[in-house]
Amino acid sequence: MKEYRFEEKKDTRSGFGLGLLDVARTNPDVVGLCADLTGSLKMNDFEKEFPDRFFQTGIAEANMMGVAAGLTIGGKIPYTGTFANFSTGRVYDQIRQSIAYSEKNVKICASHAGLTLGEDGATHQMLEDIGMMRMLPNMSVVVPCDHNQTRLAAAAIAKHHGPVYLRFGRPKVPNFTSLDDHFELGKAIRLNEGSDVSIFATGHLVWEALEAGKELYKKGISVEIFNIHTIKPLDAESIIQSVAKTKCAVTAEEHQLNGGLGDAIAHLLATRQPTPMRMIAVQDSFGESGKPHELMVKYGLDARNIVKAVQQVMQDKG
Amino acid sequence: MREITELQDIATQVRRDILRMVHGAQSGHPGGPLGCADLLTALYFRVMRHNPEKFNVDGTEEDLFFLSNGHLSAGWYSVLARSGYFDTSELGTFRKIDTRLQGHPATEEGLPGVRVASGSLGQGLSVACGAALAKKLNNDPHLVYCLMGDGEQQEGQIWEAAMFGAGRKIDNIIGIIDYNGQQIDGAVNDVMPLGDLHAKWEAFGWKVLEMNGNDMQDTLDTLEKAKQQCGKQQPVVILMHTDMGYGVDFMMGTHEWHGKPPNDEQFEKAMTNFRETLGDY
After folding, report:
1. Of A146, A159, A259, B264, which alpha carbon lies 20 to 30 A from B80's?
2. ipTM above 0.85, yes or no
């Protein structure tokens, strides 16, 4: 089992703030919009450095999405920033018509996604966003796993012409990837090579998958672990190749079972290579208040549950 | 510059086109675009500086037009074709399978003249505000026009955009509201009264003008006045009084023809109102 270390925990949203600055410094077409959450999205430094390219829209997310679509007409690359809830569910029709159907080059950047938003509770814990966004034609969906990767992803999506949904979170989590790593939209990253089972994880669950991998290694199970940072377009070939070898798969994500990464991979495997699967995800329920770690344990989104799922799916394949 | 009689002749042909398109498809919205034919003609044939032959989505160094109330597509397509964006023969494909002239405007088929999809109401003014901001960033002195419906003023997003336009001092945009008093379910005042629309837009910080959108001279004069108001740290909106179904006696003064095509008999009767001025497509 390949070893991954981290020096400190860092939040992915700070990675976003830095990535936005990185790309804005090299690409003058990049502009930023925010709906009264500049501090939460870590867009303050962008606002300070590029005041003429930053647009505060107030608490009016529908308008923000429309304004972003309009800014692309004239060649701008708008990055919108608000919580995942207000980036998707609240403005689904605006994204659908003015951005996705209209093929607009808008980067929808969503923080505070999932249960790890914590104490604010279910009203703000968006768990359906990946599903909503991946259903839209033309839309790419990117969910980086840590601070450094979020920074790389935030810059990389500017190079892709078309609408992108970039999802990240609130809490500080292990920052184990390197800024020297290669990040390519749509290309899964294999973190560990193995032969007994494939684990496909996204976002905060990638670290949990690595923790589970260590545990399973001790039990003599050889685990192949992928960081699926791009859920759409899905890296079908890497996934198919892996399960062709391991013959079973576990998916892990901080999202509803319906519509998320597990759904996407189940569809792929069912149609191309039927394979026993288990899915770690929120089981068709809303979240609640609590500390991020407590919530992840209560809803079964942790290494311990990934280990269990692996053991079950290995029984399934016989 | 085109004389007013010439513009009136174009608007007459546009009204013929609208009726022929909606009748040909046996589907679509004749009432709204009949009411707005004069405005669309004035914009595309006299007021706007634009490049029909060299259309590109970015639209730098030209005026832009956004149709927020996308169901007026028949009227817009006619004016786009008549002003040179594409061949008028294509108007006959309106709403038919494999057409670029979708029921509501769209970009996916690449129809020249269309820069964003519209139809789901309330979104166009936000997009127009964004395009106007892009013009400012690009030091492009051209203007952005956006046509909305009056029923559409019931959408909350309109007022988000209204607040934004004034708050961000977007003074290179001219909003136009088709104030015909009708919407699908009936008179706007019965469905959901708008109250004092003039005062509302003024209270939101916009310079408000009013005009008779079925009087070409008044339309041209007011659009000129609106252009003079631009560049003064304040967005401009025109309440454009029109009759839905203008020019077809039996379609006027009612909401009945918002989204209904005429049958053969009604079509023949309606067409007698308009001379063929530029040649039918």
Report:
1. B264
2. yes
